[in-house]
Write a structure and sequence with these properties.
Helix content is about 0%, strand content about 50%.
């Protein structure tokens, strides 16, 4: 059973930065495509950023392009989300997720339903 544990959330002022981490255990992390999603109160869980299992492919939702960077360290079984120039509208619970069975080393998975494993989430609050 794969377990994902997020950390690094918190309260930050607008314009500030945070780095989220997601540590994986119990599975073949280096072969999982990984993603970050977020869910604000009363809203659906939305894709934020994704990275292929090789690390060679990344993709971002338009609202975070140029501000967020996803990366992974397969030696540490960890995926990161570096967030800069944070805005109040970035406030949400952030979840990491893992997708198994992806053959293409550059493929990024964006659909919520395509992910097999989820973390418990970490709260990010950006004050204005």
């Amino acid at each position: 059973q794969v377990q994902l544990v997020e950390s690094g959330g918190g309260l930050v002022q607008a314009g500030g930065s945070l780095r989220l981490s997601c540590a994986a255990s119990g599975g073949a992390f280096s072969r999982y495509a990984m993603g970050w999603f977020r869910q604000a109160p009363g809203k659906e869980r939305d894709f934020v950023a994704g990275i292929s299992w090789s690390g060679g492919g990344t993709y971002y939702t338009d609202s975070v392009k140029g501000r967020f960077t996803i990366s992974r360290d397969n030696t540490k079984n960890t995926v990161y989300l570096q967030m800069k120039s944070l805005k109040p509208e970035d406030t949400a619970v952030y979840y990491c997720a893992a997708a198994a069975g992806i053959e293409d080393r550059f493929a990024v998975v964006t659909g919520t339903g395509m992910y097999d494993y989820w973390g418990q989430g970490t709260q990010v609050t950006v004050s204005s």
